Amino acid sequence: MLTSSAKSKGRRLSARVKEKLLVYRPDIPECDIKVTCSGETGPDIQFSDMASKEFPFVIECKNNETLPLWASIRQLEEHKLNKDQTRLLIFARNRSDDYVILKLDDFLKLVM
Predict the structure, then answer these.
(1) CB distance 70 to 22 below 8 Å
(2) Which domain holds residue 20?
(3) What's the domain count of the chain?
(4) pLDDT tens-digit map of 4-37
(5) Using alpha carbons only, what angle is made at residue 62 by residues 16 and 53, rounded to the nearest 5 degrees?
(6) Which tens digit of pLDDT belongs to each residue from 87-101?
(7) Alpha carbon of 22 to those of 1, 28, 85, 101: distances in Å?
């Protein structure tokens, strides 16, 4: 697969995640959630200061048939965090659902 095609698949997943966030929180203005351009450093989805209070997450999106799991986690861990943020790896492949990976301790903090 061409690099440009792979990046396009990743952007489509990021856009899908943004749309789902807006469906679940219609009170958040669309302009407060930004899908980053490919090649831009940092998370794949960026939140305004207001939106990051509602979504305290750093998100990396991967849309691959064969997810390089540990390399993807390493890339996610390179993103800077504020003290209240949680890292999320959101991934999918063609004709599949979208899934989320996060650290077990972070998961337990969210559900407890």
Answers:
(1) no
(2) 3-111
(3) 1
(4) 666 777 789 999 999 999 999 999 999 999 999 8
(5) 60
(6) 999 999 999 999 999
(7) 31, 7, 19, 20
Distance from the first to the final alpha carbon of the chain: 42
Rounded to whole angstroms, the Cα distance separating 66 from 49 reads 34
The DSSP-derived string for the chain is --HHHHHHHHHHHHHHHHHHHHHH-TTS-GGGEEEPPTT--S-SEEE-HHHHHH--EEEEEEE-SS--HHHHHHHHHTS---TT-EEEEEEE-TT---EEE--HHHHHHHH-
Residue 67 tokens, joined: 């997810």
Prediction pTM value: 0.89
